[in-house]
Amino acid sequence: MGKKHYFLYTKAFSEVGNMMEMIMMNTVVYSLTHSTTWLSAVLAARVVGGIISSLFSGILADRFNRRHLMIGSDLIRGLCVLSMCLAPTPILFVMTALVLGFFGTFFAVSFSAEIPQIFREEKNLEINAFISRLNAISMVVGFFASALLSNLVNYRAVVGLDSVTFFLSAFVLFFYKWDSNVKESGMPNWKQLFLYGNEVKQYLNGQKMLLLIFLVFLFQTFAASSQNVGIPMLSQELSAKHMTFYQGLIWGVWGIGSVLSTWIIPKIKCLKENFNVVYLGFSIFASAGFILLLSNKIIEVILLFSFFTGMFDAGSGTYFSVIVQQTENHIRGRIFGVANFLRGLGFTLGFVGASFFLKIISMPQMVWIFHGSTIVVILGSLTYLLTKKSQSISEKKVKGVL
């Protein structure tokens, strides 16, 4: 990769601060309000901001220089994070989370769509596994650091560090350049927005397999809200006094599993042959892992399942990125915009559902419902894929005989 890896390392460092800020924000809000509603509101605000942004971030990523969009997103997020130092109020945190989600999606769409252009000489699977590995390491460092710093420094110190990482990322992007095939076309008018959207619709109509993957992804993000709400609740049950420590410990071990998974994936030949089937297989085990993880109260068992869940969850995320990046460059930004819209929609529905279900059932039961429904959808998708593959093989044999 040469000098190109510096950009990825810088982004990973930014993720460290981002993870620390996120877990600290969740903890402060829950400690101030003792309300799962406020906790869900902060988590949902990030997602809602992403949904709003995803409606047009993909279009802009296909019309503007994606590097410039990433730089602008980093600068705005850095300033936004600093605003949390003003006062620890739930309303401020919700507003901040909304803006972070909005510009976080701008960065994510541009970054994901541009990866094949930056590393075009490398294989997508290897590059995405490396990116996932760096993200997992960032999670390990970020969550363990938040667990340790929670007893040593004020939350404002963590927020300040997070803002610095965003500014550093923008600084590196400002000087680091690469060839891009996207030609700047300026701000689209309403007619152009409609035409761009219609082009995406026509493209997806011809990609039935991608539509199936998107359906599974929607259910995955819906189910993911259960662990984002459930792990803080589980951590408080383990120890209300050391809630941040246990939350950071659980996610940190999850990150260690993710690191191992993304290191192994590019080395196994059979995992490079059918991305769709492998993605669905990893997704099943990830959902099963979260069910087992959040249905326990013994910390040793929780950490064991957290480790294995991290392995399969990272693999699922890696293959999803690879599948979407196989789309053509001229429309790739909009396809990632659709993916981020589905992510936001799934999370929003999940957070609303979590707030409702937690009033009538326990947290583990909620997780069983959310991830159980996801497993059912994945099994149905796998059955469809294998049936279609079997029919294709049979048709080839018949043609061969004729």
Report on the structure:
Helix 2 packs antiparallel against helix 12, helix 3 runs antiparallel to helix 4 and helix 8 packs parallel to helix 10 (275-293). The protein is built from 13 helices and no strands. With 402 residues, it is mostly helical. The mean pLDDT is 80. The chain has one domain (2-175, 193-393): Up-down Bundle (Growth Hormone, Chain: A). The longest helix is centred in the C-terminal third of the chain and has 39 residues, at 363-401. Helices cover 82% and strands 0% of the residues. It has helices at residues 5-33, 36-61, 66-82, 90-118, 124-149, 155-175, 190-205, 208-238, 243-264, 275-293, 299-325, 329-357, 363-401.
Radius of gyration: 21 Å
What is the beta-strand fraction?
A: under 5%
Name of the CATH homologous superfamily: MFS general substrate transporter like domains
Helical content stands at over 70%
Number of H- or I-type helical stretches: 13
Report the biggest beta sheet as strand number plus sense, adding barrel if it closes: none
What is the third-level CATH name, the topology? Growth Hormone, Chain: A
Q: In the CATH hierarchy, what is the class?
A: Mainly Alpha
Question: What's the pLDDT, averaged over the residues?
Answer: 80
Which stretches are poorly predicted, pLDDT < 50 over at least 5 residues?
none
List how many beta strands DSSP finds: 0
Quote the distance from N terminus to C terminus.
49 Å
Order of helices and strands: HHHHHHHHHHHHH
CATH architecture: Up-down Bundle
Global morphology: globular
Structural class: mainly alpha
Count of discrete domains: 1
